[in-house]
Structure formats: structure tokens, C-alpha cells
Amino acid sequence: MTDALHPLDAATTFTPAADGSLTGRTSPAYWNMVGPFGGVTAAQLLKAAMDHPARIGEPVAQTVNFCAPIAEGDFVIRVKEVRSGRSVQHLYAELVQGETIAANATMVFARRSQTWGHHASPMPEAPPAAEVPLLTQKPPLAWLKAYDFRYISGLPIMASEAFPTPQSARSLIWVADQPRRPLDHVGLASLCDVFIVRVFQVRGLRTPAGTVSMTSYFHASPEELARQGTRPLLAKVDSIRFGDQFHDQQAELWSDEGKLLATTTQVVWFRD
Amino acid sequence: MTDALHPLDAATTFTPAADGSLTGRTSPAYWNMVGPFGGVTAAQLLKAAMDHPARIGEPVAQTVNFCAPIAEGDFVIRVKEVRSGRSVQHLYAELVQGETIAANATMVFARRSQTWGHHASPMPEAPPAAEVPLLTQKPPLAWLKAYDFRYISGLPIMASEAFPTPQSARSLIWVADQPRRPLDHVGLASLCDVFIVRVFQVRGLRTPAGTVSMTSYFHASPEELARQGTRPLLAKVDSIRFGDQFHDQQAELWSDEGKLLATTTQVVWFRD
Question: Is the pTM of this model over 0.90?
Fold first, then answer.
């Protein structure tokens, strides 16, 4: 360990301006093919909202829309307070480069208090992370190095031609930040986008594709996330319908103690 | 059939102002306990976006945040063009009463074109709608009369005390507009909110509760929805984690020909 900031903390550190806007910069550690990994953009928008002076409580929901490619370099995030109730707050944020709104987000925060609680479904069955081999062969994309993946099932295999029969859209994975980082909502927001888009896996073929909109719900308190610490999360992902340039994707992120930490869904654009 | 507008079409008819804003009015036909049924608000925000002069293509994604109670009477919807690419467009809308932003929405539209297509999972097994009894005993809420429900499983049963053991969070239902209405994206957006919130069903108890944020993805073309016509849709819903005032909810809406028409998720606030 060094005293250096974790790359995700460096990526979510902003310079505030007098008008309340925040200037940030794209992170080389989370670079994808032609722009940043979407998860880091979600984390940046969430952190900018958490930095808003009127923010109350903790994150409950976030929808991020990826509106335009984000270019390497500086961006500005503006957060607007839409509505603040006694315990629930709605914020809206835009990530801007020049004249272009490259991403926007709606976010819900809440001062949560204890109520009746229940898990209606158990964590998917999985061997402990330590018994699942670490994925070492990865395509040369920076963001893939920012996570450790241990595939229990549904390892995407890419070929030069599509499989004659579509593969399963499901994957079950132990996943963790690399280097390790104690879990918090900012880290969880980014982990919600950690899945190879399903169209690649199902076809076995990499074509132009990208997330258009992503929604994540956060079900755990900061204390519960802190207790999870740096240990891997169990992540389950699936999709149902592919066609006419888009597909759905649904996922769950579980603590290794069997608690659902986040549910997340996205709609993915793809080309043949 | 009469020549009168269907209540959902009446609810989504607006008066445009010179500044591009649209004035609408809450619908008695879709009234819930202390405000409108969330689905009609989603339909109103989607229709307002579809009415925007710069709108291209058809709806792909919608996130609606329910920020404050909507009072009976007039409201104004303002739609902003966030970003328009060649084939994908992002819009943002606010529904305002007086000084209060009561709801907001981000929406994705696209000019879709044909690509490789695939259903990775089949429709849930269900008897035909005609073989499932129509639910006739309903609480006296207007919006419940605006839909026909045929529960295959997971009929919510309310009692004066919570069940000693939580019930299943799942329901499988044939659902249709009442009176019947040919399916389109506006109708589908509303149908995405047609589920009794899961906390009622699991506990068997009605406590203060409401949807805070809802995201729907639309997987079918206008032509495919038109082919479905007025026939009931198969709807499957489930939740996993309840606690500290919130729970998740995930659902799928299927055509009776076995195609996934929409996936939808929401986060629900509740009190003990």
C-alpha cells in the first residue's frame, strides 16, 4: 500500500468553481475502447451529487444516460437540486464538455431509518471467491485491469465469427476493485457497470456497442458497505431480448455475507 | 365503443404554450390513494416527450422520478432536448405544479434499424388469459378499475396484521387496459407501473408506501405493439431486498405471442 489516492478516488476528485460547478478529468485507469468505462462516469456523477452542499442522506437510486462520447480531458459537472423532502431528495446532474452534454443523471438520496426488513430471495449459490480462478487473460483495455474477475459461469469467449448458436446471456462472477478499495457507494456505482455487454457474450463476437442508459438501486447503508470492505462481491447478470440495435441487461451485486447490495439494469446499443 | 377519448388518451392530451411547455391535468380515472397512479405520470411524461418538435424515433428508455405529491388539477411539463445524435436522442422533462417539480424524467429515443435478434429466455409459462379468472374484488381506487387483472399466481392478500411469515414477492398476471386500448408506447409506459407494491404483498399489510423512481425499457416497435392490439399482456414481477424504508422491484411485460415488450424496475419507499 502507498499513500497515493486509489484511481477511483483520483477520478472522483473535483475542483469546485464559484458557481458551484465541479471540474473533473477523465481517468486513464478506467479508459475503455473509445471513451471512459461507463462505471467511472456513474461514480463521478454520484460523487458530484454527494459533494453538493444541499445533499442529504445516502444514495438510493441513480440513472445515468450516456448521451455522447466523453473525450479524454476535462469535463464540468453541474448538479441541480430538484426537490428535497424531509427524508428523500432528488438531484439532477449533467456532465458537460464544451457545448455537449455528454452524460446526465437523476439521483435519489435519503435519510434512511430502520424498518421491517426481509430478503425474499437468497444469494445465488457460488463457491467462495478464493476457490474460483482469477481471470488473467483480458483484452488490453485499461478498465478491465481496474477489476479482478473470477468467473463462476458465463465467461465471455470472443471469436472472429459469431457462434452458430447463441450462448447463454448469464454470468456469475466474483468481482473486486484492483487495486483493492474499501467499498462505498461511489465504488458500488462503478461496480454496477462491470459486466461485458451481453451481446458480445451471447454472439461470441465484438461489434460496436455501448450502454445508453443505466439505473442502479443501492440497498445497503454506508456502514454495511464498509463492513464488506475490500472483499469481492458476487455479481449475477442476465439479458432477455436482443434486436433492432438494443438489448436489456439486469444484474445483482451481493455481499459475500449474502446481502443484496445493489440491483442494476441497463439498455445497451449495438450494431451488427 | 364510443367516439369518446380513452381515459389514457384524455390524460395525455396537452395544451401547448408559446414557450413550448405543455399544460395538462390530472386524470380522475387514474387516481390512486393520495395522488395519481404513477403509471399515468410516466405516460404523461413520455407523451410530452413524443410531442416535442425535435423528437426523433421511438421510445427506448424512460426513468421517472416521483419527487413530490402531485395535487389534483393542472400541471405543466417542460421537455428539454439534452442531446441528439444521428439515431439516438436524449430528452429530459420536468412536471411542475407552481414552484414544485413534482416529477422528472430522462428518456431515450432512437431510430431503430434491424439487427441480429434473439430471445435468450422464453416467456414465463402461463395458461391463456381466457382461462384465468378476472379479479373482481378490488380496493376502491380509481386506477385499479382502469386495468383488468387476471392473477395466475401471487394475488396480494391484505389483512389487518402482517403475516407471521413473509409471502412470496412474485406475481404472474395477465393485465389489460379497461376499457381496452390498442397498445402503444404510451400505454406500455403506464402498464409498467401496474403492480401492487411488493411490500404490501409480502407483508400482507398496507402501510404508507410509494414508488420513488421507476425505469422502463421498451423492446418492441410501434408496429409490434399495434399487432398486440388490445389483448392482455403477461406481467411478471419480483423483489429481493426490503429494509430501511426501501425495496427493489423488477418486472417484465410480455406479448401473448411470447415476445418481451418491456423490462421495468422501481425502487419503492415504505414506512413500517
Answer: yes
